[in-house]
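Q: My collaborator sent me two sequences in one message, no labels, and asked for predicted structures for both. Can we handle them in order? The first one she listed is below.
A: Yes, handling them in the order given. First sequence, followed by its structure tokens:
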Amino acid sequence: MESFLFIGLPYISIGLFLFGTIARFRSSLYSISSQSSQFLEHRALRWGSTAWHIGIILILLAHIAVVLAPGLWTGLMSNKTILLVTESTGIALSLLCLIGILVLAVRRLVFSKVQAVTTNMDLVVLGLLFVQVGLGLAVALKHKWGAAWATGTVVPYLWSILTLKPRAELVTEMPLLVKAHVVGGFAFIALIPFSRLIHMLTAPVHYLLREPQLVVWSNLSRTREAVIAQAYDSRRFFLRGFVATGAGATMLAVGVMDKLVRFFQGPKLSKEQEAALMEEKLIRIKSTVEQRELEYERLKNDYIYVCRVSDLDARVGRYFTDFEMRPALAFRDEDGLPLLISAKCTHLGCTIANELSADGKILCPCHISYFDIKTGQPNEGSPAKSPLPHLDWVIFDSQGNLLAQRNSSGVTIETKDLALLLQQGSLYIVKNLDKRV
């Protein structure tokens, strides 16, 4: 199911969007519009449409920016002030979208004239948009700082889809709300060619420049005057909303302009600061080299040394890196044998703390999930839903003789000299233990 939702569905949606849009432009060109019902009811439309369009346009522009320029976006979000402003603005715009879509939905269900021209597809689109915006708001509230962590998870996944190298694993371990939001986005793309959403592909720039148009329902003078007044009122309200939106964007830009200018210009450093910066860069380079050495060692070798069995502690775990370059912890269990468990949280991938609590649990400090050291299971109600996996291990003596092992069948002791095992044994993790030992 996950392969279908995160690999099959994206390509089905993109295919439907491309071929459906081409077919509609070729066969039903004059149906490509929002099919406005303004003349049937305009008061609720004015409030709902304005709130919806302002909110959704800015949200979509932010989504497009993070996908097209993830490096620049990550640099901006590293600034706490900009991150806070972005998250707060996104939540406010989501609420504005929900208010707008609710007004539009009530308008289509309540006003008889609008209801008469409402299709089933219109109701499906309204429902999908409401659910999709609601999911986005729920993600922003429950899994905070998505503007920062999305560039390392969702954005690489989207690029893997576009480059025909799908990597579903980037999102399959994400929380349910995030996965539902991704699936909803592809469902939204698939519906565009078959609904009035296709009007997004046309930009009504000429509307701002053309002369006012009059639609006359009859020859009665009073009706004509009402239509003329309505035409000018509509233009005036549109321009007023446009100016207000521009003013708000300008105020927001002025509020962060100083930090943006300083960010792109970079600080003016003294020689001492330049030397300190160079030293920091060298440290990062060395760290990268060390990581590549670890990757090479795990690619080349079948056994990776962890520590001596006698160095293990029952309360404080020893960090090490497993064969998948993920953090892991090594403890001593009640029998004095090793207990190796993954230290990568199954919620959003944070590193688990290495100190054991009084009730035998370790803590993920990012979103407060407690995992039982024996079973790996998270506590009930925690953000994490999946258990931490245990790792297989082997113990060798100084001559390379096998003393003990743990695999899918459990722990096996190969020696009768337990003192030798616990005092002089060396602990290793191993690839494909069931096949090698």
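Q: And the one she listed second?
A: Here it is, processed independently of the first:
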Amino acid sequence: MAAGKKFTFICGNDDFLVGRAGKERFEVLTAEVTDEFAREVINGFAANVGEVEGAVNRFRDAVQTVSMFGGKRVVWLKDVNFLADTVTGRAESTLKLVEDLQQILDTVNPDETVVLITATPLDRRRSFPKWCEKHGDFSLVGGDGDSAGEALASVALAEAKSLGATFGSGAVELLLAKVGANTRLIVEETRKLASYAGDAGTIEEEHVAELTPNVAEGDFFEAAEAFFSGDLKWTLAALHRHFFTGGDARPVISALQNRNRILLQVRALVDAGEVRLGPRGLDGLPRAAGTYGSHFTGATEKSSFNLFTQNPWYVGKLAGSAKLPTLRRLIDNQQELIAAFEEIIQRPDEQEEVLREMAVRCLAPAA
């Protein structure tokens, strides 16, 4: 605990990161506490005002309890969720109980009782978090707002470092594009990739492409990669693997349509001279967003219908991973995908055959 601080307060918007940071800090704080009765963990999760009151009362009793054999006690108020902007968090009774919690913390003697609080989610506009930041050993885990993407990358980088590994060029960006904002998966995938990297210790972009499933949007990564690479043999093999494991055609079509929509917009910008494909991917996308972004009214969430909501690195990767198809080819792809969906309705027991036939029509060289 920082010198002169009465308690430790760890917060953030990601329950996994906050919980993990809290566990690590609790282990440090209890390292020299041999009496198991001098360690107490109190559940601060509350679904209503009554449960908030119960948690605060249990915490008060724990803080005021004297160690049976002398020495310090460590009390962890864990998984506090009533400091958020929720119905329970906004209730007048809850706000009064939070004032009581602040009074309890203000009277803590850190020489006798070491207090740790972990809270997620948190409304930082309120006075209590600001008071904790001033009077406690305050830690905001995972960042917030615009720094969220950087925070996710830092999770992967920190996990790799702890395992003696590093990420090669483009590997972290591809990992985040495939996994999304799931910190648990980021950590587990980083562990798996670090193990695969072995003694070399460097997680390369091709390792991520080969080993990490694309779960960010349910995108069926291999089939889409194969199709838009123009490799018919690979596409047919990817489709066979998908259906061999009991897969359905609809999510594959959805994945292909999503990528085709993105590439249609990229192709239009390239043909208009607004962006260009370079060695680093797609150059000029931010400038194009400033020019055309306002026309995507109501499409502000991440969507394949709005190119400018996509990760710029990921867009550049998609556009530069193979020869960018012509606008005519991309429009034909979209028509073929619509026709395949309609045909599956007529031939529900022949889904693999429908997609294989579509792939051949789109990718087979002209006679």
